[in-house]
Amino acid sequence: QVQLVESGGGSVQAGGSLRLSCAASIYSYSTPSMAWFRQAPGKEREGVACLGSYGRTRYTDSVKGRFTISKDTAMNNLYLQMNSLEPEDTDMYYCAADSGTACAMYGGTYNYWGQGTQVTASS
Predict the structure, then answer these.
(1) 97: helix, coil or strand?
(2) How many helices, marked H, and strands, marked E, lie in the chain?
(3) How far apart are CA 11 and CA 118, in angstroms?
(4) Which residues, at least 6 apart from 102, have a Cβ–Cβ distance to it below 8 Å?
(5) Would you state the pLDDT for residue 29?
(6) What are phi and psi of 43, to 5 degrees?
(7) pLDDT at residue 27, rounded to an integer
(8) Could you count the other beta carbons within 10 Å of the beta carbon of residue 86?
């Protein structure tokens, strides 16, 4: 069974930084594809960044140059370094994983999800 547990969320002033972590319990010989999504109440879920099995990364346009996705390969732990946070980044952030290889920004691609961690950036 796959378990994903996010941490690192919090409240910061606009312009500040946070680093999200996703502790992944994935028992497999394959390297999963993983991603970060975010969603606010009443809004659609949005793909923030993904990291495919072979190292490909993708970012949604609004976070390019500010956010960096990375992974501890040995442990399959996923990270999201968020710099220059803006009030528009305020959301619940979710970690997702799948046994496939693709770096996908579509939530339906992923079979495993964490419970989320709240990020709030205030002006």
Answers:
(1) strand
(2) 0, 11
(3) 8
(4) 33, 52, 53, 109
(5) 56
(6) -115, 160
(7) 62
(8) 14
Instruction: Report the length, in residues, of the chain.
Output: 123
Tokens found for residue 63: 């976070």
Pick from 29, 31, 19, 21: nearest CA to 97:
31
Output phi, psi for 97, to 5 deg.
-145, 155
Label residue 85 exposed, middle or buried (CB < 10 Å: 0-12, 13-18, 19+). buried
Strands across the sheet with 18-25, in order? 3-7, 18-25, 77-82, 67-72
Strand pairing report for 117-122 and 91-98: antiparallel
Cα-Cα-Cα-Cα dihedral sign, residues 72, 66, 38, 47 = negative
Specify the pLDDT at position 28: 63
Task: Give phi and psi for 23, each to the nearest 5.
Answer: -85, 120
Residue pLDDT, tens place only, 57-103 = 999 999 999 999 999 877 779 999 999 999 999 999 999 999 888 89
Q: What is the mean pLDDT of the chain?
A: 93
